[in-house]
Amino acid sequence: MSTGAELYLDLMKKTLTNTIYQDAPLPIGQQQVDGYQAAQREKGRDWPSVAHTMVGRVRLDYLERCMRQVVEDEVPGDFIETGVWRGGVCIFMRSFLRANDITDRRVWVADSFQGIPDTNGASHPLDVKLGLDNANSVLGVSIEQVRENFERYDLLDDQVVFLEGWFRDSLPTAPVRSLAVLRLDGDLYESTMDALVNLYPKLSVGGFVIVDDHILPSCRQAIREFREANGITDTIEHIDWTSIGWRRTG
């Protein structure tokens, strides 16, 4: 029989992905919109019009598994996501802490809260080619809105810390001491590399790295170059069609 905490977290996943009221996806780019489709939402293949996350159930399940593992193994550190959109993943991180009565870890919410940086002047050609900043009318969610989303779940408190700004500016001086879960969702080469360079050294041995958009050439190249430059050989696990993760062993 499921415990109250397990039932709560399951309901949070359904609410954050809005599989309950089943909002239609947004017509982004060439994406064909024909109403809500459960399979698409489950795998995080649509951009919801209302739901607070677009990552889907599969990636939320993996995130919970990682958080549960570091708690069971007493791996020190906080949880962070770099690139939060409407805040759904970070809200789930905070709900996990609440469900398990964990008061000595924090959730760091890192984002520009303006969307994707202007890729016309990007330092890497793959970022220019990606052109995701054209979707900033959807991707740019204000810090006020994200804070309000936390409040709707009664989860905005002193265990939630916001890091506002472009990653190249905010992360080098971020007062993060140690991390147990590092979740990257910056899409761009620059954003991914900025997060890795500044935050990976703070990831405890036994902690997890989760990369949301490894399918994108820009993100994938940043991951490959960083791992090679730092001699990281930890086994990569494919979570779903776009996301990967690995556990730091040294």
From TrEMBL:
Keyword Metal-binding: no
Any single Pfam family the record assigns to this protein: TylF
Transmembrane segments: none
Stored Gene3D superfamilies: Vaccinia Virus protein VP39 (3.40.50.150)
Alphabetical keyword list: Methyltransferase, Transferase
Keyword Transferase attached: yes
This protein's name: TylF/MycF family methyltransferase
Organism: Nonomuraea purpurea
